Each structure stands twice: as structure tokens, then as C-alpha cells.
Amino acid sequence: MTKHEKLENAEIQQHLNEMSGWVLKENFIEKLFLFKDFTEAFAFMTRVATQADNADHHPDWSNTYNKVHIKLQSHDAGGVTNKDIELAKIIEALD
Question: 31: which strand partners?
Fold first, then answer.
């Protein structure tokens, strides 16, 4: 598997401007998703898990009742790569 190159902050921000609610922090992008209840939040996580596994790129995330907090970064590159942007766009389509 080839290592993806870390993107520059300006390039990351350009991608994030095309999506809703994602923010750049240090070496990752993140978003907080809110749902009606735990069941809806967990169903969303299940959909994300399937897509993330298919992409072989897995988020750092947490769930508290109706909230799902997702952080994306390519650990091997030490920051955000196109792989993170692609997964964020997939996640956006699932919300």
C-alpha cells in the first residue's frame, strides 16, 4: 500500500469549504454529528463503519447518546491526506 502525502492546510480548507461542519484542527479534520436519539446515532455509525472498512480507512470516533464525534487523519502520513477527504465526503453522503 502506498503512503498518501499529507495535504497543506490551504488545500484541506478548500475541500472543507465544500462540506458542511468539518473543521481542521492540528493534524486532523473533525465533525460532530447530532441525531434524534441513540438508535439513529448508532445506525449512522454502522453505515460509516461499512464504508470505512470498504475504503480500508477507519475514523477515530466516539458516541455519546445522540452525538457522534468523528476525527479523520492518516496516521502514517502524520496528518490529513486525500484519503481523509474522500472518507469525509462519503460520511457526508450517509448523514
Answer: 70
Q: For 12-93, list the strands marked E by DSSP.
A: 23-25, 28-34, 60-64, 67-72
- The x, y and z cell numbers of residue 18, run together, are 465544500
pTM of the predicted protein model: 0.91
The tens digit of pLDDT for each residue in 15-53 reads 999 999 999 998 999 999 999 999 999 999 999 999 999
Average pLDDT over residues 2-13: 86
Please compute the mean of the pLDDT values over residues 2-10 and round it to a whole number.
82
- What's phi and psi for 18, nearest 5 deg? -90, -5
CB 92 within 8 Å of CB 85: no
| Direct distance between the N- and C-terminal alpha carbons of the chain, in angstroms, rounded to an integer | 29
Can you tell me the distance from the alpha carbon of 67 to that of 95, in angstroms, rounded to the nearest whole number?
Answer: 12
